[in-house]
Amino acid sequence: MEQIRVEKTASRGIVVEKVYMYLEPDLTPATGTIADDQVQAEIEKFEAAKNAVVEELGQLAEKNEIFAAHLEIANDFMLQDGVESKIKDSKSNVEQAISNTIDEFAMIFASMDDEYMKERAADVRDIGKRMMAVVKGVKLPDLGVLTEPVIVMAKDMYPSDTVKINPALVKGIVTEEGGVTSHVSIIAKSLGIPTLVGVKGILSKVDDGEYICMDAGEGIIVVKPDEDTEKEYLDKKAAYEQERARLEGLRSTPAVTKDGKRIYLCANVGNVQDIRNALPMNIDGVGLFRSEFLYMQNTHFPTEEEQFVVYKEAAELASQELTIRTLDIGGDKELSYYEFEKEENPFLGWRAIRISLDMKDMFKEQLRAILRASAFGHVRIMFPMIIAMEELKNAKALVKECMKELDERGQAYDKNIEMGMMIETPASVMLADEFAKEADFFSIGTNDLTQYILVVDRGNKKIAKMYDYFNPAVVRAIKQVIEAGHKEGIKVGMCGEMAGDQKAVELLLDLGLDEFSMSAGSIDYVREQILNRE
Description:
alpha/beta; Glucose Oxidase, domain 1; Enzyme I, Chain A, domain 2; TIM Barrel; 3 domains; 8-stranded mixed β-sheet; 8-stranded parallel beta barrel; 21 helices; PTS_EI
């Protein structure tokens, strides 16, 4: 018997079941170069593979919008040019050309500091895997063939793998790679499947078909358990399931403390599917819609109409509140179709609202789309990385310009739409009392705020322990912002990781936070803490 400790819990739960090894065929690209007279044939092989993958993704996109972004990437002219140029110029065979181009695309995402965006590299590799399988003429594994309950173990799982997950048969998931913001993690949370990711070396320690015990909440895997251990985990599983049923029974209860304060529980989302996944938690709305993903998972700056379609659907789903953060790129977030000037300190450079105010036409396309969507639900506009009153006033002025343009078109919108801002820099904290006179609401972004106040790069492993939103300096900043907002009568929320941290709930309630916005999987636990608050 061996007990393995794991850091990355993607979805809680306890399971005792046998292992199903979900292993891919060898997709290692063939080595060697090609002759000049082979170039056209290799290009034609790529075209055939691409067309086959596009057709398959098109069918998947009709069932699940996750694959709409995959389809865009597969059709991306930069991907095609990358592969074809490697075949023509470097005389790479088609397998090498696909592999190297996919690596380049994936590296753009993998190098980003934002964990959510880092995990998007898996989307790119998913496409590469599909193309390589077509070129090699091999079949990929299929979870649709399962006939009995199992714990699925894999090196990693891609969005196309998760489509076939049947929670009646897939009782647990363990991967060697991946992170808590990957698609498999998101899907696992929405389906309530216990999941551990990033478990290095696990495939070499477990045999296909053998039973294991897994406590995903505690981050424990027990390999080759004895009878007593197996019984212990079965008992723990029964107790956990009773607890989950109890928590789910609280979902219909509004989050009100025992002393009568109503707290709003919202979800952080990146797309419409995330909203659908969060709705069963009985959310009070969406506290953060990351609009940048519309831009990052595209081949061009999305048009007003393209954005409107997405925002409208989101507003109808999250009709109580949909807070759309305007474009937040720069820093660690890049666009494949727009070349940013290299900066020595990109996190302190041209990013977020600075880009939007400089690229006004692009910004107004987004603002008009948001305004039009506001006719279909309670939509709020949130500006990121504001550090000066002039920025906030200029952004609001552009919204007013867009309102006039929509009036001229005769298109409906909420004329009283709320316009608020992220508090995520020391400057915005120190000026919070002034900003509160101009903004309709605040949302504290503790991820950036913590790293800026502490001067700690949250992606630097050497100083990771210093990144701590419980640091007194950060806590004082949060307190100052909440007090400034309440003095002017505006709601103060939080959409950083701290909002979903059970260890932080009591503190944030003490400080007077009005709205907690977090990943959907944390909402049940935070709700209970609020309901038990004296």
